[in-house]
Write a structure and sequence with these properties.
Helices cover about 20% and strands about 20% of the residues. It is of the alpha+beta class. The chain has a domain of about 30 residues. Strands 1-2 form a two-stranded antiparallel sheet. The longest helix has 12 residues. The termini are close together. The mean pLDDT is about 80.
Length: about 55
């Protein structure tokens, strides 16, 4: 996995940051991830969906 972090205009600890994560995935993994996202209850706090990484 390749990770790139940068602090565009971060003023200090606790401020939002940006991150770009690059990792290999297969099309089927994206389909599965989107199926999970579409089935989420939008009123539920902490709902999760998982994207499988190709190794």
């Amino acid at each position: 996995m390749k990770v790139k972090l940068w602090g565009d205009a971060c003023k200090g600890p606790g401020e939002p940051e940006s991150v770009a994560l690059l990792f290999p995935v297969e099309a089927a993994a994206i389909d599965s991830f989107l199926t999970q996202v579409r089935s989420m209850d939008t009123e539920q706090i902490g709902a999760t969906a998982f994207l499988a990484v190709t190794t």
